[in-house]
């Protein structure tokens, strides 16, 4: 089942990396149907204006609602038109009438692996990249009356606009789509899939610059290797991301580490 993605931005060139690597391959293989739209194409003045000063005063500029509504109406019309092979479909095969709209922003709900999994189940996603101090609040209300809307943040820091966040979100979602990653097994043993960070990995040579690969990995005892790797995952998570562990498990793992 192909997933349709629409991205609306004032910097379409910012999305160029989506032609590369795994995502580019998924597009060429027909697993992803990606459309990037220039918000300025939905303005009508000579200067193709997308922003204006904030009512009430304050720093910076706010994105005007008009171009956003026209751009999103265009996305909905184009995506639900059912052009041959291009229409997003629901699980039952009928065309999806509207996309789930993602608005990236530092004030959103946290984008996590769980959210990526939810989005990978959707037939059609649209992304609205804000810039400047944000998008006029009425766009959120207007869109929310027409389609499901999620405001999503990558984490507690500020980017200049939604474009880089969309690159991250599209990559996290697309790699979960069936067929995008050749070896589906590599998807399950990953950080954030089961709540623990990954174990450390090594390759040849067995000794490098006086540093040795742990002995257990050189023997063929698969049970011992699995136990060692699990232990490494728990300790690593306790040290680097204790917030991922139940409080008791976090302190036990750190005590174990000090006793070694
Ligand atoms: Cl999703 N957008 C912007 N502009 N800044 C962010 C972010 C998103 N996530 C973290 N910082």
TrEMBL record:
Its EC number is 2.1.1.228. It comes from the Bacteria. Its main location: cytoplasm. It catalyses: guanosine(37) in tRNA + S-adenosyl-L-methionine = N(1)-methylguanosine(37) in tRNA + S-adenosyl-L-homocysteine + H(+). It is an enzyme of class 2 (transferase). Keywords: Cytoplasm, Methyltransferase, S-adenosyl-L-methionine, Transferase, tRNA processing. S-adenosyl-L-methionine binds at residues 130, 154-159. It is found in: Cytoplasm. Homodimer. Specifically methylates guanosine-37 in various tRNAs. Belongs to the RNA methyltransferase TrmD family. This is tRNA (guanine-N(1)-)-methyltransferase. It comes from Knoellia flava TL1.
């Amino acid at each position: 089942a192909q997933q349709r993605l629409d991205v609306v931005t004032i910097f379409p060139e910012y999305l160029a990396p989506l032609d590369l690597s795994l995502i580019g391959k998924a597009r060429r293989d027909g697993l992803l149907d990606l459309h990037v739209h220039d918000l300025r194409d939905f303005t009508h003045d000579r200067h193709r204006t997308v922003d204006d000063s904030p009512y009430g005063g304050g720093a910076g500029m706010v994105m005007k609602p008009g171009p956003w509504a026209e751009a999103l109406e265009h996305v909905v019309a184009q995506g639900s038109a059912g052009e041959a092979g291009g229409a997003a479909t629901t699980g039952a095969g009928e065309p999806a009438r509207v996309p789930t709209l993602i608005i990236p922003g530092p004030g959103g709900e946290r984008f996590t692996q769980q959210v990526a999994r939810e989005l990978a189940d959707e037939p059609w996603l649209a992304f609205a990249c804000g810039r400047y101090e944000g998008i006029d609040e009425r766009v959120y209300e207007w869109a929310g009356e027409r389609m499901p809307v999620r405001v999503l943040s990558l984490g507690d820091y500020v980017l200049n606009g939604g474009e880089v966040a969309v690159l991250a979100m599209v990559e996290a979602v697309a790699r979960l789509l069936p067929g995008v990653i050749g070896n589906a097994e590599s998807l399950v043993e990953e950080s954030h899939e089961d709540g623990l960070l990954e174990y450390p990995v090594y390759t040849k040579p067995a000794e490098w610059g006086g540093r040795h690969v742990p002995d257990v990995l050189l023997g063929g005892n698969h049970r011992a290797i699995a136990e060692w790797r699990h232990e490494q995952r728990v300790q690593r998570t306790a040290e680097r991301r204790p917030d991922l562990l139940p409080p008791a498990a976090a302190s036990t793992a750190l005590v174990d580490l000090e006793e070694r």
